[in-house]
């Protein structure tokens, strides 16, 4: 941005004055939006707007002062193109961009006008592309926020207009939205051909929709004797499941991985309760009482936790009376009450819940020690809090299963709206032509297509000759032109990283 330009200087002056509290007015609204989009550093500009209550209010107000087609095609489109700056979507794993988008569309004054203009064909090509991008971002939001957009009454008309567009960019947005809807709304209760089983109803944590399943186990789940619902691989190979295959695959991967986690949890509890021989590595604490709630420190807030006080000191702290020495022990022994490790909370022999341990070393180092437990499952939390009102003798069993290795992956599967390369891997059939990657070393590609045995020395600027045989040339072409390729060869032969 050229600050010497009089208009640029005026835009910057208006932008800064509004961020410093100057009231936004209808005549200043378009100028503020233009000034925001003209800033040289989009990330710094967006950060200033989001961190400033005056700037955020100005953005929300300015974008809905004028809802005419002219405004939507100019200033409205410019704001959305500004938000499409690649660097913005990487901030805070996309949450920063989502927050900006939600501020613009909620309340839905601008969104309804923009949507209406699209349906009536009043948007120009650039604004239509921005609409497709915005609608895609709204469908990608967490399910509770995305549901109203995924269930849009005019979804069929919107998708038809997007997908049939002559612009590859606009059509691409329509294709991605279609894939999201297929994954999130597909019928996933496909019966197992061997027994006709289907998910849901076995216990309090078994649902047809795998996104509703609590990652941490529940009391009812662990006491259930019914086998879990797991599909055979043949279900994914069945031509009848092709339209729902991506959703089925995500569902099945979640159930398989979670069952692997649960197997370890069940095996460990069987050892603890004497139903199976073996050695239990985790810590067992008898005699816990509830002290208070914990929300972290003022400087660093955490998810709420329940602080439980031990009746006796840890045997590991024998001879360690000073808090400094106890903290050093905890610092040296990171596996002792490992952070985010799973635990089983009992009242007598009654399992209350499966909380995770928030390893607060300052509390653990106290005498008697204090343990912070965090709860995820609603049913387990309610049961635990209800029982804790009248119980003063609780037992905690630390589970040695590495929950932290399973949790992020399981959550990622539940939040997945699409599956990259599904067309090339999951849905590919013999005879399907793989989509080519555009603009990838075209000089090399064209040369090899004309003559696979051409010396590539001059093209690749190497000191020695490079002449490929037919199979090597085909392998290199495959790697350069296809989204997915499998290249195999003998040791020492040509390989494509």
Spatial order of the strands in the main sheet?
Answer: 4-3-7-1-2-6-5
Distance between the termini: 41 Å
Radius of gyration: 29 Å
Beta strands, count: 7
Determine the number of helices (DSSP H or I, runs of at least 4 residues): 21
Residues in helices, as a percent range: 40-55%
**Which H/E pattern describes the elements?**
HHHHHHHHHHHHHHEEHEEEHEHEHHHH
- Write down the oligomeric state: single chain
Shape: globular
- Tell me the fraction of residues in β-strands, as a range: 5-15%
- Write down the domain tally: 4
Q: Runs with pLDDT <50, length 5+?
A: 187-191, 492-497
Largest sheet: 7 strands, antiparallel
Mean pLDDT: 83
- Structural class, judged by helices and strands? alpha+beta
Describe what this molecule looks like in 3D.
The protein has 497 residues and is α+β, with helices and mostly antiparallel strands. It folds into four domains: 6-185; 188-278 and 403-419, no CATH class; 284-399; 433-497, no CATH class. 46% of the residues lie in helices and 9% in strands. A seven-stranded antiparallel β-sheet has the order 4-3-7-1-2-6-5. Helix 1 (6-19) packs across helix 2 (29-37), helix 2 (29-37) packs across helix 4 (53-62) and helix 3 (42-51) packs across helix 4. It is globular and about 70 Å long.
């Amino acid at each position: 941005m050229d600050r010497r330009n009089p208009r640029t200087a005026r835009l910057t002056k208006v932008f800064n004055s509004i961020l410093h509290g100057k009231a936004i007015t209808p005549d200043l609204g378009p100028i503020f939006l233009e000034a925001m989009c003209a800033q040289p550093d989009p990330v710094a500009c967006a950060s200033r707007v989001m961190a400033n209550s005056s700037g955020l209010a100005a953005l929300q107000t300015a974008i809905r002062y004028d809802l005419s087609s002219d405004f939507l095609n100019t200033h409205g489109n410019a704001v959305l193109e500004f938000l499409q700056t690649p660097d913005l979507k990487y901030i805070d794993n996309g949450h920063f961009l989502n927050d900006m988008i939600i501020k613009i569309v909620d309340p839905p004054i601008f969104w309804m006008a923009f949507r209406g203009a699209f349906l009536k064909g009043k948007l120009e090509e650039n604004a239509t592309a921005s609409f497709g991008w915005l609608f895609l971002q709204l469908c990608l939001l967490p399910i509770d926020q995305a549901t109203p957009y995924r269930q849009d009454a005019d979804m069929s008309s919107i998708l038809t207009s997007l997908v049939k567009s002559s612009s590859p960019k606009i059509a691409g947005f329509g294709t991605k939205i279609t894939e999201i809807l297929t994954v999130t709304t597909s019928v996933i209760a496909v019966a197992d051909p061997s027994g006709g089983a289907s998910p849901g109803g076995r216990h309090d944590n078994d649902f047809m929709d795998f996104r509703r399943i609590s990652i941490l186990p529940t009391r009812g789940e662990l006491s259930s004797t019914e086998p879990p619902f797991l599909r055979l691989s043949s279900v994914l190979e069945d031509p009848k499941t092709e339209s729902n295959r991506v959703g089925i695959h995500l569902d099945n991967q979640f159930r398989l991985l979670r069952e692997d986690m649960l197997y370890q949890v069940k095996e460990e509890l069987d050892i603890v309760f004497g139903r199976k021989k073996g050695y239990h590595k985790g810590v067992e604490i008898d005699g816990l009482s509830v002290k208070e709630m914990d929300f972290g420190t003022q400087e660093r807030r955490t998810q709420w936790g329940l602080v439980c006080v031990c009746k006796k000191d840890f045997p590991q702290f024998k001879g360690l009376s000073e808090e400094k020495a106890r903290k050093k022990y905890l610092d040296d022994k990171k596996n002792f009450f490992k952070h985010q490790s799973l635990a089983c909370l009992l009242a007598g022999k009654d399992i209350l819940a499966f909380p995770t341990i928030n390893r607060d070393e300052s509390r653990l180092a106290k005498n008697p020690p204090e343990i912070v437990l965090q709860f995820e499952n609603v049913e387990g939390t309610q049961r635990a809090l209800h029982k804790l009102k009248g119980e003063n003798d609780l037992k905690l069993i630390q589970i040695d299963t590495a929950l932290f290795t399973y949790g992020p992956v399981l959550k990622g599967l539940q939040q997945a709206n699409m599956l990259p390369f599904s067309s090339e891997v999951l849905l590919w059939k013999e005879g399907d032509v793989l989509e080519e990657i555009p603009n990838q070393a075209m000089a090399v590609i064209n040369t090899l297509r004309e003559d696979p045995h051409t010396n590539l020395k001059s093209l690749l600027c190497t000191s020695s000759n490079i002449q490929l045989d037919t199979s090597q040339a085909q392998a290199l072409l495959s790697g350069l032109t296809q989204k997915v390729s499998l290249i195999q060869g003998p040791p020492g032969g040509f390989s494509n990283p």
